[in-house]
Structure formats: structure tokens, C-alpha cells
Amino acid sequence: MPGSGRRLKRVKMAEEDILAERRKKLAGLLERGVEAYGRRYDRTNPIAAVTESSERVLICGRLMAWRDHGKAAFADLEDFSGRIQLYFQRDRLGDDFSRVKDLDIGDFVGVAGRPFRTRTGMLTIGVEEFTLLSKSLRPLPEKWHGLKDVEIRYRQRYLDLLANPDTRKVFATRSRIIAGIRRQLDQLGFLEVETPMMHPIPGGAEARPFVTHHNALELELYLRIAPELYLKRLLVGGLERVYEINRSFRNEGISTLHNPEFTMLELYAAYGDYRLMAELAELLILNAIDELFPDSGRRLSYQGREIDFTPPWPRLTLAELLRERLDLPGWDDRSLLLERARAGGLELDGSETVFDLLDLLFKFRIQPGLVRPTFVLDYPAEISPLAKSKPGQPGVVERFELFIGGLEVGNAYSELNDPIDQERRFQAEVRTGRPDRPKVVDEDYIEALSYGMPPAGGLGIGLDRLVMILVDTASIRDVILFPILRPVR
């Protein structure tokens, strides 16, 4: 826009003027022996807990607004719990009133005083004492002008949190969701564990790994794609119900749905299967909804579409969806899959395998319609090497993927616990694997299985995507505090 560059330049100059003025003020404070970056302050209340009936309170927070009236001044003080008005009065503060000029919007301040209501009914603290706790040298961003640029919001999340209460609410909600899941699993007898984030071989899921190097051991290591194989080793060792809320890494594209570093819930239950995992996924997500939105009737809006979470959620096989939505009798006929893909206008280069075509057709022709929570069951064995075969259905395994609002949110198996079959499938992966996604037979895992692993169900839920749905945002970057971004050139 013409003129926008000049406006930004004026804003930048204004910020530089403020910075120079505040540095000058800071120097004056230090010359007078004032500690501009203070120490512990024992508050009696968070701001939200202050009421008109409260006795003398000590509160602290950041100054967010200032209104000077000569012999008196009003300010807004904010902490994580809320905001309250402060009233600085010369008659009450005496000689200390002169120190009011030391304060600026953005400063952290501790305040002692008594609450009262103004003539307009606003709850206010009559300031009797105040302490500068931290001097702000830069002006705070304006909510509507300084943080319209989403890149700034993601790169300088602290400014986003400062300017936008809705952002703070999103991350508080995220924390509540994860805490609630953890509580529920603990109550169900699951044991929270930690497994390595650096692996000696790439594995656990299909993806390109990040590679690093341990100098002392002269050892190449891989950031984990998933914790699966380590968690299942624990089943071998007798830990029957385990879970990990883990950070995993995939060295692939960045988009509104993908961040190279992401958070997963992964859990395993001995003597279970994928149907038990579907029941558990329902339970965990519904508990989160009931806790966060008790009056919702289990109906939430996501990106303009209502999602009905009322259980039981539909359970449809992949074969049923292919037949009903694409008129496909199965997934074995590449020429038929290719015909449907071309008819659907999908971009192809001609090298796609049967399973590449199946993935594209599902992703673009079926998945967007899976708005209500839906379990899609029974996948090809070739793309599910860690899942147990389905009795009476050659080439099919007991696996589901969970879709909500058109997004893939979860994945589960009846876990393969046959060491001979597992080794055979690993070897097939090595033969057919892509060069950018190296596959290695995990000999130690095979050895672990050979000691015997109980039949089990395993479940993974993408917590970032689940939070996206529950807080109604279209981008994964809005629910990750510090997402990976392209460097500024």
C-alpha cells in the first residue's frame, strides 16, 4: 500500500525516541540508587482474586495503561489472572508521589493498597506504596497496529502474548487439555515414562529423520520420529500400561498442519487391541471437551462447521469409504486408482505407486468430508508394518486413523508381537524404502520381541492438532509457542 512504508518508518522512529528517553530515565534511576530491576515481591493476591471487601492487598504485574491528572494518576495493572485500576494520589503518597514519574507503560510494579470502587463502579486500588520491579525500555506493541503481522506474532511470541489476551487463553487451554489427559491416564493405571529422543537408528514411523552426531562416541544419531519401539520394549519388560507425552521430530515440510517439532501422546496397553484404543481415544477427548466446555452439549464449532462429538463415533473401514465415496472395489488396482485420481484433478507425475495414489485419493477426496469424529479402520499391511494382521483378511491389518474436522488426529494398531513376522516386514521396508527415508532392521527390537511381548493395543494422538480443533484455529503455529519458521532474509 502507498504510504505504508512511510508509516512504518514513523513508527520505528517513534520507538527509537521512546527507547532513548527510557534509557535516559533508567540512567537517572541508577544515579539515585534506585534498583530498576528488582527482587522478590510477596503478593497477597493475584489480581483476579481482589474484591471490594478485600483488606489491604499486595499485588504485582505490568503497567498496561496510564492516565495522568496532575495531583493524581490512574493506571491499569495486569497479571496473568486479570487487570485492575490503580489510583496514585499525592495526598495519600506524600513525597513518594514524585516517584510516579519514574514509571512507564510496560514496567513491572508491586503495589500495596486498599481496594474501593470509583463513582463509575470500577474496582480500584488506592495505592499506598509501590515498588518498581522491572523497567521496560521498549514501548509495548499496540494490539491492532503493532501485531497485525502474523510473522511477528510467531517470531516474537512474547509480544503476541503481551498484546493479545486470546493468545494467552489458547496456551492456557492447551495446558489444561494435556493436564487433563495425563490425569485421566493416571487414573486408568497407565504409567508415565520417558524414552530416548536420540536414537541410534531411524525408526518408529515413516518420515525423514533429523541427523545429529555425538562427538565423544563418534556416533551418528537420529532425533526420534516416534517413541513407539522403545515404549513397546517396556511391555516386554512387564510394564503393562505406559504412556509418554513426547516431542517428536520429522525433517519434512512446514505448513499450517505440520511443524518439524511436535507433541504426541503415545500409549500402549497390554492385552488390548485397536478397538480398545478407539474406546480410549473417545474417552480422553470427550473428557477434555466436558472439562473445557461443560455447557456445549458436546457440539463445537471448528472453522465455521459444527462438529458433533456425541458418542459412539462412527467406525468405518477404509474399504467401505473407498466403495461409498469413490466407487472403488478395493486398493489393489493401480490403473483404477490412477483413473480416479486423474478424474479428481490431482497432480501426478506418473511415478506414483498404488499406495501413493491411495494416499492422495484419501487425503483430497475423502478426508475433507470426515468432519464428525470418525475412526477409519483396517488398512493395507504394506503401509502398516507394525500392526497385527486381521484374521481372515489377507493383506489387511488391525489399524485405525481418527479424523476430526477433516484433520487426522490419531493413529492406532493392534500391535504386531510376532518377532519372525516383524523381522520379515522390516526387511521388506529396507528393500522398498525411499533413499531420503532410510530404513534399518531394528535388531534389538526384534530380539526384545523374541522374549515375548503380550498382545497389546497402541494409540498415538497428535496433541497439537487436537488443540487446534478445540480452540478453533486453522494453523498449528497458533498452538505451538515457538513454531519453526523460515529465517528472515
TrEMBL record:
Q: Which organism is it from?
A: candidate division TA06 bacterium ADurb.Bin417
A cellular component term from Gene Ontology for this protein is:
cytosol
- According to its UniProt record, where is this protein located? Cytoplasm
Which protein are we looking at? Answer: Lysine--tRNA ligase
The UniProt entry's GO biological process terms, in alphabetical order, are:
lysyl-tRNA aminoacylation
The Swiss-Prot or TrEMBL record lists the needed cofactor(s) as: Mg(2+)
The note on cofactor binding and number reads: Binds 3 Mg(2+) ions per subunit.
| Span of domain Aminoacyl-transfer RNA synthetases class-II family profile | 171-487
Could you tell me what reaction this enzyme catalyses?
tRNA(Lys) + L-lysine + ATP = L-lysyl-tRNA(Lys) + AMP + diphosphate
